[in-house]
Amino acid sequence: MSTVTRAADRIESVPFLDRGDASLLLVLPGLFVFSAFMLFPVLYLVGISVTNADPANLFAGEGVVGVLTFGDAAFVGLRNYADVLTDPQFWNSFGVTWLFVATSVTLKIGASLAIALVVTSDLVRGKRLLRALIIFPMGLPPIFTITVWRGIFSSAKFGLMNQLLSAVGFGSVAWLSGRWTAFVAYNVTEAWLAYPFMVIITVSALQDVPEELHEAAVVDGAGFLARFAHVTLPSIKRPVLFASILTSAASFQQFLIPYVFNQGGPARANELIVVYGYREALAFQEYGRGAAISIVALAFIGAFMWLNVKKGRLADGVSD
């Protein structure tokens, strides 16, 4: 008998509890943790977003209670949201963020699919070693990896990327000083950080494709590309789509790459929306405005994920 079953039996043995009440008590610890670390911060953020909170008035109250009740911050309604939605910098950050999501996810899917096909091929030897090497970047702290990639994309001649360009006859590039060269550097680094996760999901999906389907396609005269398009892709579509939605959300929330590379530069041109919210809240000390940016971003990424799950029919059968 499992621990959960024994706990349920003990709870149900209490005279004044019926089965429904016992089930609720088992869920309460999880609900408490969710409320403390997820629900409450979001609700507090919503509260700040409708005030003129800044360091001077938010911390004017006494102790923790004063901060939780927003100190001396005044209620301003939807003014912060109106200011944000009429700020050209918001729309620049909004557009750059979605462009980054689109390009980085495309790069991650393409790279992970190619790597997964290699490590699952019958022609490849040492698959276990290859898989261990592939997931190795997951064990490194992201800040360490991003710092290394910043050195690789250094604008100096000794930067690894510039050395590679020099080796093939090209001149040095000021990677982090130009808008689109920095954007390319963001994408490459993001792909490096996320590809192990994508490869794991894709390899698992490829291994679940029935071999009989490939054999039947071979009998029908289908070549590699035809089998890939008509057998492999339809079979792995759902797992890869699920992983793509998760990594899209991660790309949307990316903060470290642009901030460590050049703080969203040059001149805030590549300022992703999380960096934009951080700068407004902490650099300009506009807590209410920064909270409004975060809520707007949360609404957009929530709608994006819901739409993809709905259209991709990833929740089919959950209610069963």
TL;DR of this structure?
It is found in: Cell membrane. With 320 residues, this protein is mainly alpha-helical.
Question: Beta-strand percentage?
Answer: under 5%
Question: How much helicity do the residues have?
Answer: over 70%
Low-confidence stretches: none
Task: Give the termini distance in whole angstroms.
Answer: 26 Å
CATH architecture of the domain at 87-285: Orthogonal Bundle
User: What does the average pLDDT come to?
Assistant: 83
Shape: globular
Describe the model:
The chain has 320 residues and is mostly helical. It has a domain at 87-285: Orthogonal Bundle (MetI-like fold), CATH 1.10.3720. It is 71% helix and 0% strand. It has 15 helices and no strands. The chain has helices spanning 3-12, 19-49, 55-58, 63-68, 79-85, 88-119, 127-135, 142-152, 160-167, 179-207, 211-219, 224-252, 256-262, 273-283, 287-311. Helix 1 crosses helix 2 and helix 6 crosses helix 10. The longest helix is centred in the N-terminal third of the chain and has 32 residues, at 88-119. The chain is globular, with a radius of gyration of 25 Å. The relative contact order is 0.11. The mean pLDDT is 83. InterPro entries: ABC_transporter_permease, MetI-like, MetI-like_sf. Residues 94-308 form the ABC transmembrane type-1 domain.
Which features does this protein show?
single chain; about 325 residues; mainly alpha; MetI-like fold; about 0% strand; cell membrane
